[in-house]
Every structure is written in structure tokens, then in C-alpha cells.
Amino acid sequence: MDICTLTETAKKHINTVCEENKCYAVTLDIKGGGCAGFEYSWGTIKSIDEVRPLDITMDAGTGKFVIGSESMMFLFGTEIDYVKTIVSSNFEITNPNAKSSCGCGVSVSFDLNEVSQNVT
Fold first, then answer.
1. What is the mean pLDDT of the chain?
2. Please, what is the Cα angle at 82 between 54 and 59, to 5 degrees?
3. How far apart are CA 96 and CA 77, in angstroms?
4. Is 119 part of any domain?
């Protein structure tokens, strides 16, 4: 079972990002911070050599999507979509583990007792 699901729209945008930036993968991690306690941290890596041994790599077509190993328990069951509107475009995260999130779509909080069950 995959840690998360990428919609076809998300896969297409990951491929576009990788091609335009000449990188190997789009990355997603969870880090401490933000108004809700944690925040989603997006990035890119240039080559496969930057993928750490316990990271999860998902195929998106010509590009890859990498989840940092420390973030897996927070992202288990998450769906990642790419949404375009008249005023913006961004990856949209639907995370069943999130207890609450900020209106910005980046900051999120978790019930750490619930999330820790994803490890077992």
C-alpha cells in the first residue's frame, strides 16, 4: 500500500516541475512550525543520489515524488491533488491524519497519539 495517493493532475504537475527545473523529484516533508504546529514543506531534488535510504519514492511518470522518511506517519492515507483556479494554482493535500489546519493550506496540527499508530 502506498503512503499516499497522487491524482493524475498531481502526477502531471510533478512531471512538469521536474522537466522545467531539470530535477529528479518533487519532495514533501512535514516540519515543525507554522500557526498550527506543523507545516508541509515542498521542495525538489536534483538527482537520485539525494534520496535517503528510508525515503519513499513514488513514480509520477517522467518525474518522481519523494516523501521524507520522518514524515511518513503523518502522511499515511493522504491524497495529493493539483488544483488551478482563476487566482492560484497549488498542490492540495487531503490528509485524514490532520486534526486541524490553517486557512493557508500549509500549516497543520496532528493528534500525535493517533499518528503514532500509523507506525505499527
1. 88
2. 35
3. 7
4. no
